[in-house]
Every structure is written in C-alpha cells, then in structure tokens.
Amino acid sequence: MAKELKELTSRAENYSQWYQDLVIKADLAENSAVRGCMVIKPYGYAIWEKMQRALDDMFKETGHVNAYFPLLIPKSFLSKEADHVEGFAKECAVVTHYRLKNAPDGSGVVVDPAAKLEEELIIRPTSETIIWNTYRNWIQSYRDLPILINQWANVMRWEMRTRLFLRTAEFLWQEGHTAHATREEAEEETKKMQSVYARFAEEWMAMPVIKGVKSESERFAGAVDTYTIEAMMQDGKALQSGTSHFLGQNFGKAFDVTFVDKEGKTDYAWATSWGASTRLIGALIMTHSDDNGLVLPPKLAPIQVVIVPIYRSLEQLAEISKKVDGIVTKLKALGISVKYDDADNRKPGWKFAEYELKGVPVRLAMGGRDLENNTVEVMRRDTLVKETVTADGIEEYVKFLLEDIQKNIFQKAYDFRSTRIVTVDTYDEFKEKIEEGLFILAHWDGTVETEERVKEETKATIRCIPLESDKTPGVDMVTGKPSACRVLYARAY
Amino acid sequence: MAKELKELTSRAENYSQWYQDLVIKADLAENSAVRGCMVIKPYGYAIWEKMQRALDDMFKETGHVNAYFPLLIPKSFLSKEADHVEGFAKECAVVTHYRLKNAPDGSGVVVDPAAKLEEELIIRPTSETIIWNTYRNWIQSYRDLPILINQWANVMRWEMRTRLFLRTAEFLWQEGHTAHATREEAEEETKKMQSVYARFAEEWMAMPVIKGVKSESERFAGAVDTYTIEAMMQDGKALQSGTSHFLGQNFGKAFDVTFVDKEGKTDYAWATSWGASTRLIGALIMTHSDDNGLVLPPKLAPIQVVIVPIYRSLEQLAEISKKVDGIVTKLKALGISVKYDDADNRKPGWKFAEYELKGVPVRLAMGGRDLENNTVEVMRRDTLVKETVTADGIEEYVKFLLEDIQKNIFQKAYDFRSTRIVTVDTYDEFKEKIEEGLFILAHWDGTVETEERVKEETKATIRCIPLESDKTPGVDMVTGKPSACRVLYARAY
Predict the structure, then answer these.
(1) Closest chain B CA to residue A159
(2) Taking the domain A3-71+125-288, which CATH number applies?
(3) CATH class entry, domain A421-490
(4) Averaged pLDDT score across all residues of chain B
(5) A-chain residues within 8 Å CB-CB of B71?
(6) What would the mean pLDDT of B245-259 be, rounded to a whole number?
(7) pLDDT tens digits for range A364-397
(8) Residue A398 vs residues A335, A361, B208: alpha-carbon distances, Å
C-alpha cells in the first residue's frame, strides 16, 4: 500500500479528519496564508470547472444570461433592506483606504492615512444590493421585464470557523438575480431554479436531494421564502446544497425599482435570487468517497479513465504503449477523458493507490500477459471490483462502465439515505434518533420558539418543509400544539 | 434612421466620445455606483465569455491548468519584492476591518472599531506574491516542476481616471503563473505565451498586433523582461493587449522558493507570469467598429446572424416564420448562432439599426416578395453591402460570409496599420508624424533619459522593441548617440 493511503484517516475513526485528510491528500485544496481563505488546487478546480459548465448550460437553457457586477458595495447600500443588513453586515470585509505608502522607518509599507475613503466599501457577501441599485436604471416598463441574469463570482463572508470548501471566508459561486412583473412569475422562477439545482445534484453529482422550503428562521436575510435542496452526507448530517429565494418586492422597494405595467399602473418589481457555490465540492466528496479516497461521479471527474502500463523492460513498455495508443484514440473519439500514465519514476502499485485516492472512475492496466492474450485489466472505482476483459471493443465497455458507475453511486447514496430517514412522533425518540445521525420527519407547531428549543437541546435544525411529503396534520412532538405537516429535522453542516 | 444611430457621435467628430457612446448604446457596459468600477452588461459579458473560452482552450492546449488563489493578500507580502511594491502599493484597495455594527444613532451601519485586523489585507492588483508564497510549499524537487497554472479572476487597481473596459478600478482577467527549473525553460514559456496572445488577437479578434519587448521603464514591476503585443486603434494610438513577463528568480528569491535539481544542487525557481483582461473588449471595439456601431469578428460575436421578418399581416408573418424556421435549423446545424427577431413592438428599420449598432455580422431579412421569389436579403455588417440571394443553400452562403468577414476585417485593420507605420530619422519629423497618429520606428540610444524626454515633449512612449524588424544599428534621433536598432514609438491608451 502506498504511503498516502495509509495516512488517510478512516471515516469510522474520525469522519471530520477523514474529510480534511482527503481534501488535502487528493490535492483538491489547501488553506492559504490568509485566514479562512483557501487555495483551490488544479485538481479541485477542474471539478469546479465541470460543475460550472454543466450549471451554466442549464441556466442558459432556462433563458438566463451572464453579466458581471462590482466586487465592492457602498456600505450604505447594505442598510437599505432591514433584514438583509442584519444578516450580512456582521461578517464582512471592509475597505477603508485606497493606498499604501512606504513606512517612514523603511520597514515596509503602511496604510496611507491621507487615502481614506469617504464611504467605506464592503467586499460583496452576496450582490442583491449592488444589483438592485443597478436594476433601478434598467427597468421602467413591463417590456424591460423579466431580467434573467446570473453572475459567476467570488464572495466573502468573514466566518470565524472555516473548513475547506464547506465554509470559507472567500468562496466561488454563481448568483442569479432576476426581476419580474408579477409575483406569480417570480415565484415560478424561484421554484424553477430550485428544480435546476435538484436536477444538477442528482444527474451530475449523483447526489439525491430533498426539495423543500426553509422555516422563517433559516431563510435568506431579505427573502420572503427560501427554497432549498438538502443532501445527506455519510455521517448522516444534512448539507444545504443550493438555495433559491423568492424576495418579493423587498429589494424593489429598498432600491426604488418600479415599472409601468400593461395597464399603465406603476408597481415595484418582483425579485428572486439563487446560488450554489464551491461548497458543492464538499458535498460531492462527503456523499460518495470512501476510506481509499475520492469516488467521483464520471460526469464530473476531471479524468474519467486512467491507463497504467505494467512492464519489465523498455521494449515491453513500447509494445504496451503502442497498444494503449489505439485504445486512447478510441476512448477520446467517444468523448471520454483519459490519461495514460507511463511515468517511469513511480511503480504501478503507487499509481493504483494514487488514482484510487483521486477517484478516477475507471482504471485500466496492461501488462505482458495482457499483451499476449489481447486483454486489459479493468477496475471500477466505486466497487473496487477488478476483472480482465478482452481488449477488443474495450472503449464501448468503458463507456458502459462510466454510465453504470454514475447510476450506481447515485443508487447507493439514495439507498443509504432511504434507510436513514425516519418518522418520529415523540421528542424522546427524536433525541435518540438524532444521535444516530438520521434525518427525522416530525411534526412542528410552526413557532420559532419550538425550533430554537430543539436546536439548543439536540443541535438539530429544521432543514426544510419538504415539498413532497405526507401533508397529514398532527401535533408538535415537543409542545403538543397543532402542526400542519411534518418537517425535516437533521443536524447540519 | 433609428434614434440610437443618430445619437452615436462620429469618430471624426470626437473619437473618445464615439467610444464612450458605443459602449453604452450597444449595451456592453456602464459605470457603477462604485467609483471606477463597471457593470459588464449581458451583451458585453457574452463577448468576454467567448474570449475566455477561446483563450482557455489555448492555455490548456499548451499544457496549463486552472486554479484559484485568494482575493486578499497580506500587506507584508507586497513588500517582499522591491520593484513589485513600488509598482503596486500605490493604488490598491485596503481591507482594515472585518465587521460592521449598527450605528448608535440608528442611522445605518458603521465600521466596528473592535474588528480591526492585525495586519491589513490588500485586494489583489495581481497575484504574484500570494501565489509564490503558496508555491514555496509545492516545490521541493525538479520533479515538482514545471508548474503551469492559470487563474481567471477579478483584480483591483485604484485608478484615478477610468474608462469603460480600457482602464477600470476592478477588471476581469486571467493571470498565468508558472515555475520552472531553468532560465531557458522560463524564457521559452514567456515567449510561447506572448505567441498565444498574438494568435488569439489575430485569429479570433481579427486584430493585427506587433510582438515586442518592453523597455526597462515600461516593464512589469518585478519582471526581468516584459513581452507585449501592441495593437493600433483607429485613432492611431497603441493599445497594449497582452503581456507575458519573464520574472527571473525575483519571486523565487523574495518568497524563498527553492528546489533540488537533478544533480542535487539547490537553486531558486524561475518564474513567468502573463495576463490579458477585459481591456481586450475595448481593443476589439476600437479596432473594427464604425459610425454605425459595433463591428464584431464573427468568431467572437454573441449573435452571428440575425433574421428580421418584414410583414404586412399576421398571416404573412406566419408564412415567413415557417420558412425562417427551416433556415434557423440549418444554420444551427452548422454551429452558427442565430436569432430570429419577430418581436411585434419594433419596426424592421428600428431592428436593422439596432443590430448594426450591436455589430451582428450578418443580417437576413425576408418579406413578401422574398417569399414569392424564394429569396433572402442579406447584409454583411463589415461593408454594409446588401444583396438578394436565393434561399436555397443560404446556410452555406452565410457560413462563407462569416469566414469572409472574419478575414476581411483583419485585412482592413492590417492595411490601415500598414499605411500608418513610418520610419523616421529626425526628431522634427517624429514630432510631426506623432501628431498625425502614426506608429513610428525610430532609433533610440537605450537610455531612460531619452525615453522620458520624448514622452514629456510628445506624449509618445516606446511601445516595444519589435521582435521582427530591421536590426540595423543607427543613431538616436534625439541625442545622436549610437542605437542598436529601431524601436516602436506611439501614443498609447
């Protein structure tokens, strides 16, 4: 076994350490010299690029276009929407000066006090304020609506406790900001984008999600309703994986964005915003990976197939390489990304461990006997099952395997989650089950007080009110008060 | 004539105002509420996305991968490379605090003095320092080299006088940062990336460029050599359109990045960096556009073909639409992006002017007579020439036109430049020619003093020492001192 494998903490031993080890050892990301900010390394960034491409295509298919708004936001903009400022002013990076100068003592550079800004600027924690301030000039008539814009950007929230991908001060994301003439249209957009996220999670990330609506206390600051997709990680914790907010006319009013409708009546524009971030990489890791390393869904794997030659002499390597060249060409013709690793400074065993760690979905190996028999050794990363198959038509078999792995890891995650969602009616049972790392469907009386009490006593929060679930009324498990339907409780990242 | 056309200032009247008008009226970008920062509107951003895709593909073809480094840089990092801090500390946004709080008088939010950072952070003006601080941990042996990384990011330089795309406080760019084991390899990389930029400019932007090396005073702060591509705008000014820097061991030494070579000897790593930005959109506009609006190279045009129906009744519109549907399908099958604008609230004349303004390369129009005759009216944006052609095989003709326009506007720009590069031997003639907006090849004695004097007296700077040019020695036109070769002088953006 290679060194890296031995050093990867097992999930059973310490789940949190396993995650941290894996992110570092699989070369996905690392902490930077700036507190709370990460460096996304090439392998991690390649996954993000694949996610971006897929999401961007889906946004465009649903009629959206991209644009770019400023990184910096005047401090006063934040205060214009009352809830928004409460949610975001507490943890933001503030630019106060625009110049450095040489220190008088020659020790380096210092802030030039003469270059103080009249109004401080905030590094965007999210862009509703700067965007709606801009939309004011773009919107006069119903003919200017809808505006369906998305932005790919970096944002910053000054988090005190950070974890690579899951919670960092700076992160990359996309944020959609749309403006509409009617409430109905904005609500429809909000739900449509929640569905886009759910489809992306399930079809690309192979990660089953539960669609729902947030309770008031978990809503986005400034939203009327927040729609979410929630995924179950292997430790049973929930991870919010994408949110879509119906903002009502809150930002239209705060930034005075009005339009004249078909009847000549003036009204405030209706808004939505929706975002997904590099946090999804954390979700991807924690959904599928195992004690050997990453398990990546083929659709998002930077390298889908790796081919490792096993040789005793340079002559034999040349023969293998010749044969492999043909396979590589055929795989590429099928649109499959493939790497032939014939580096001579590492042994096959080391390479096997390395690509397992990095989650390459399919590994092919070819040695002297394979040459003689016209065979290839194939290993699939999800099950670690090895088999020797004929080299003829291997490209079609690999294609089948990639599709099968994509389906299989989704099903595995789905089955895992299915056995870990329970319906509970008493608070005692709830407390027991929550310790086991389960998702719990329980009745809730709809009050913030009950929600807070449960959170304080069990660390579980209401993840969402699921869109698709039994809507039979009942009584709150804590207070006994009437409940309209069951909600989804879990501990969460 | 539509309103927009009339309002566009002509180039002859006021070139600078023409540019400003065009950026705004063609919906490319606008100024934001934050001084010096722009909003890139969807149509402008769509051009940037096309540029990004093409450049990114070229970077990957040449072996590079993408990654992401933090937005914020500790102040002390800037001071580690002496020239670099002089170049960049003067104009940067400084983060000093990480929290706002409610103002005691309820008037909004104020900076929380308790949340002052121990060390101030700078919004990256460029990322050499944070990246080389990171590379220190990635590089131990020659086996870790080369590192060939690119980053797509926003950067910020606190410019006092800004112009949309050409000079803004925040802009989008890519910055490549590579590390090598030998000087030769790093120099080769520097030149390779200059060639990639030149190829992109000429093949995609249809913008001819001159490749050269910067004089010492025009070098990037911290570089040993800066390689540039320089383009001529329609007013005869030069626009630096991409730079590639050979950084020697300056950053290796500043950040103590050493490696053990094959012989077991320790040395500092060799560096390059190279970047191109949203400024290229400004270059694109000023190279090809005319008094009617944008002229976009087909390869970068968000919409390559627009089709406008001309109808007298809804019945006729239905017939035209049916015919157009077939054409749209065929165009799309050829990979051509096409928009059918059948909006009923604008007249054809308005639409014609609008798409001319927006630089759509080919416009098709179809009316009643076209239906009868099985014809289409075709207009190409570069020459504004209209013709009526048969509808059979129109898709192939459009494809030919797009390729022809791409070639034609390159040739036009090339011919324009050819007539405006002159060789000059006396300072008097130089002063005369520089007023005419020409590029001037003149002898230079190699001193900063002469360069500065010419700049002060004529506002012309040495754009570069061209790579391909007459290398016959001569005498400096100003001082009469010996000169190794002619350099390229021009006024510049």
Answers:
(1) B98
(2) 3.30.930.10
(3) alpha beta
(4) 96
(5) 37, 71, 123, 154, 156, 170
(6) 97
(7) 999 999 999 999 999 999 999 999 999 999 999 9
(8) 11, 10, 45
A60 close to B119: Cβ distance less than 8 angstroms: no
Assess B160–A contact: CB distance below 8 Å, yes or no.
no
The DSSP H or E segment spanning A488 is strand A486-490
Q: Is B116 on the interface with A (CB under 8 A)?
A: no
Give the pLDDT confidence of B426-484 residue by residue, as tens digits.
Answer: 999 999 999 999 999 999 999 999 999 999 999 999 999 999 988 899 999 999 999 99
Residue B2 has pLDDT above 60, yes or no: no
Q: Is A89 in Cβ contact with B94 (below 8 Å)?
A: no
Domain boundaries, chain A: 3-71+125-288, 301-401, 421-490
Looking at residue A133, its amino acid is N
The answer, yes or no, to whether residue A1 has pLDDT greater than 70, is no
Reported confidence tier of residue A81, pLDDT bands at 50, 70, 90: confident
Report the pLDDT value the prediction gives residue B90, as an integer from 0 to 100: 80
Comparing alpha-carbon positions, the chain A residue that sits nearest to B40 is: A68
B15-29, B80-94, B251-265, range with the lowest pLDDT: B80-94
Architecture of the domain made up of B3-77+124-288: 2-Layer Sandwich (3.30)
* Superfamily grouping for domain B298-416: Anticodon-binding domain (3.40.50.800)
pLDDT band at A6 (very low <50, low <70, confident <90, very high): low
The reply to whether residue A78 touches residue B45, judged by beta carbons under 8 angstroms, is no
Return all residues near B361 (Cβ < 8 A) that are at least 6 apart: B296, B297, B298, B301, B304, B305, B380, B381, B382, B401, B402, B405
Closest to A292 measured CA to CA, from A363, A398, A375: A363
Partners of B108 on chain A (C-beta within 8 Å) are 75-76, 79
* Per-residue pLDDT, A88: 86
Range of lowest pLDDT (A4-18, A302-316, B165-179, B409-423)? A4-18
* Cβ distance of B345 and A90 shorter than 8 Å: no
Residue A320, phi then psi, degrees to nearest 5 = -60, -45
Mean pLDDT score of chain A, rounded to an integer? 96
Which of A40, A75, A93 is closest, CB to CB, to B67?
A: A40
Strand residue runs (E) in A304-354: 305-309, 338-340
What residues of chain A lie within 8 A of the CB of B120, using their CB?
111
Residue B85 touches partner A, C-beta closer than 8 Å = yes
- Whether the predicted pLDDT of A3 surpasses 50: no
Please write the tens of the pLDDT for every residue from B7-23.
Answer: 799 999 999 999 999 99
AA letter at B410:
F
> What whole-number distance in Å separates Cα of residue A40 and Cα of residue A38?
6
Interface contact B133, partner A, CB < 8 A? yes
Mean pLDDT confidence for B399-422: 98
Contact B66 A45 (CB under 8 A): yes
The answer to whether A205 and A168 are in contact (CB under 8 A) is no
Specify whether the CB–CB gap between B192 and B64 falls below 8 A. Answer: no
Does this model's pTM top 0.95? My answer is yes
Shortest CA distance from B107: residue in chain A: A79
Q: Is the CB of B74 less than 8 angstroms away from the CB of A120? A: no
Which residues are B213's β-sheet partners? Answer: B227, B465
pLDDT band at B323 (very low <50, low <70, confident <90, very high): very high
Q: Do A67 and B42 touch (CB under 8 A)?
A: yes
The shortest C-alpha distance from A272 to chain B (Å) reads 18
What order do you get walking across the sheet with B305-309 strand by strand? B338-340, B305-309, B362-366, B375-380, B386-390
CA distance B161 to chain A (A): 14
Touching check for A68 and chain B: CB below 8 Å? yes
Put simply, the answer to whether A93 touches B172 (Cβ < 8 Å) is: no
Which CATH number, 2.120.10.30, 3.40.630.30, 3.40.50.12650, 3.40.50.800, labels domain A301-401?
3.40.50.800
